[in-house]
């Protein structure tokens, strides 16, 4: 647990941080969040995370205090908690009002909360995991990093019941993403991943891995792959801020490749580790 969290201009012990029962985040999940990985005290790809935070706030028409505010907040959060390898969590809701109403009753003062948690950092090639194929039951604005995560939670519970790390979600026969990750398929030496539209969250790690793939001269297609093609894939992996590049060896009863980490996935794992070292040393 962190020593100190930020809430609406105050630095508090976690147990002392309270929000109003009329906060729209509590009543309606009317808010957004962002998660920033930190290596050796340096936020990773921070400008990209803050740009996505700005897009999410703009989509909900919630006021953004600006980049200087976020930079100072994150630095203070890391300093006060003596954090080196960590995940920074930021949440902004529309704020609290005097009564419960679906339609906000005029401009409100946003509720801003931030905390940090320790993140174990690995430098090896992760062991391949199992995922499970599930219908994507979530809403149609997955590009907004909304705190309304009930669909994601239900899907993660179903995946856990199947002995899987993550759900592999699909709509109309096409793979979208995971409950908290993006997916990449490898076939005949090329990478395929769903395009950044309203059906997926544009992951920052996803964006970075696509950049690394292009630097490694690996062909990239931002094109959704189909459920019908899963059994013929050469490799499959997912990305997220906490998992980085995670190889997948099995989808339900389908073994991908030979169940191990494929060559292209392994190259991207090593490239990601190298970029962590480089950016955290700057």
TrEMBL record:
May I ask which residue range the UniProt record assigns to the signal sequence?
Answer: none
| Annotated pathway | Cofactor biosynthesis; tetrahydrofolate biosynthesis; 4-aminobenzoate from chorismate: step 2/2
Q: Does the keyword Oxidoreductase apply?
A: no
Q: Which domain of life is it from?
A: Bacteria
Q: Has the keyword Kinase been applied to this entry?
A: no
Name the enzyme group at the top EC level: lyase
What cellular component terms from Gene Ontology apply here?
cytosol
Key words, A-Z: Aminotransferase, Folate biosynthesis, Pyridoxal phosphate, Transferase
InterPro entries reported in the protein's UniProt record: Aminotrans_IV, Aminotransferase-like, BCAT-like_C, BCAT-like_N, Class-IV_PLP-Dep_Aminotrnsfr
Stored SUPFAM superfamilies: D-aminoacid aminotransferase-like PLP-dependent enzymes
One GO MF term on file is: transaminase activity
Any single GO BP term: folic acid biosynthetic process
The cofactors named for this UniProt entry are: pyridoxal 5'-phosphate
Spell out the reaction equation it catalyses.
4-amino-4-deoxychorismate = 4-aminobenzoate + pyruvate + H(+)
Q: Which EC number(s) are documented for this chain? A: 4.1.3.38
Q: Which family does it belong to?
A: Belongs to the class-IV pyridoxal-phosphate-dependent aminotransferase family.
Q: What does this protein do?
A: Involved in the biosynthesis of p-aminobenzoate (PABA), a precursor of tetrahydrofolate. Converts 4-amino-4-deoxychorismate into 4-aminobenzoate (PABA) and pyruvate.
- Protein name (database record): Aminodeoxychorismate lyase
Source organism: Pseudidiomarina aquimaris
Organismal lineage: Bacteria, Pseudomonadati, Pseudomonadota, Gammaproteobacteria, Alteromonadales
